[in-house]
Design a protein that fits this description.
The protein has 315 residues and is α/β, with parallel strands linked by helices. The protein is built from 11 helices and 14 strands. It comes from Kiloniella spongiae.
């Protein structure tokens, strides 16, 4: 069984290729049972951690399962919040093929899923991106969105201005024109695409700040009691999700409005299955404000793991 490192994963998963691999996966017959989601209490008043077990298989080809932990307070220890491993098996014999570092796999496939949604939901002429959050996902999301839209200007907001400035410098080294912004309202109102990846428990983004034609990509707030955007955003936007089953049960940006009646399930226009299969066209006008909530899906992990396997073994 191969042991595939973070460096190998990063080299194998360029964003244009990964976005297309996800598009094909959402159009395919991959089987994905509901993932196991276990909240784990922590001592001394610390925030709960989460254990996720995410299986998926493509009949006769591949079987995979991701085991991942999410520890919201890891930033205080200079550690990523998401850590884990991915095990890929041969779909015919059941033989273990590879043990894949999952932190990088997860970051890349999560960013690519948002970019896949953006390819249907953001205006084709979107050049300005605002990144809310400065964690591991942030640089991945910026680069992934830039793989599907002509992003040139990047504004970065974070609770820690120094981290936002450091990320801006990193993005400038990659050819973007990036800067940190202390005023979140200003950062939101001037963007074509807003991508948010935080562990906030209360809304950071006000719907009152949104302007016609924007696309809002919400990646953080992975639990039902966490939220990145408020009710006004729900009221002003056309709502899309990665999967109906996951987003309506796990992500607070959809779950809380559903519980309060601000949002109804029938108001959710489409998920990535419906978008990629042509059952919904996505953005309907230049003025529409679109809202995409991602909670993650095991199909994305399997598609990414298969691409890594093909690239490394030239299959």
């Amino acid at each position: 069984m191969q042991n595939i490192t973070a460096e190998q994963v990063a080299e194998s998963l360029d964003y244009p290729s990964l976005v297309e691999a996800l598009r094909e996966a959402f159009q395919s017959n991959i089987t994905v049972p509901m993932r196991h989601h276990h909240d784990m209490e922590q001592p001394n008043g610390r925030r709960e951690s989460t254990l996720l077990l995410m299986p998926a298989w493509e009949s006769g080809k591949s079987v995979g399962v991701k085991l991942v932990t999410v520890s919201p307070e890891n930033g205080e220890k200079d550690l990523p919040a998401i850590q884990g491993i991915y095990i890929l098996f041969d779909g015919d014999t059941g033989t273990p093929k590879a043990l894949i570092e999952a932190k990088t796999l997860t970051a890349r496939r999560t960013a690519a899923a948002s970019a896949l949604a953006t390819s249907y939901l953001a205006r084709a002429d979107s050049t300005k991106l605002t990144m809310v959050g400065t964690g591991v996902l942030a640089p991945n999301l910026i680069q992934a969105h830039a793989a599907v839209r002509p992003i040139k200007e990047v504004t970065i907001w974070g609770r820690d201005l120094k981290k936002a400035e450091d990320l801006a410098q990193e993005m400038n080294s990659l050819g973007f024109t990036a800067h940190a912004e202390e005023n979140l309202e200003k950062a939101i109102s001037t963007a074509d695409i807003i991508s948010s990846a935080t562990l906030s428990k209360t809304p950071l983004i006000s719907g009152n700040w949104l302007t016609p034609g924007q696309h809002l990509d919400l990646v953080g707030a992975y639990r039902p009691d966490m939220r990145e955007a408020d009710d006004e955003a729900i009221k002003r936007c056309s709502i899309f999700v990665d999967t109906h089953a996951g987003a309506t049960k796990e992500g607070g940006d959809v779950v809380i409005p559903l519980q309060s009646g601000v949002l109804r399930k029938e108001d959710i226009k489409a998920d990535l299955f419906e978008l990629t299969q042509g059952k919904h066209t996505g953005r309907s006008s230049a003025e529409e404000i679109t809202y995409f909530k991602s909670v993650g899906h095991a199909l994305e992990d399997l598609a990414a793991a298969q691409l890594v396997d093909r690239r490394i073994n030239n299959a």
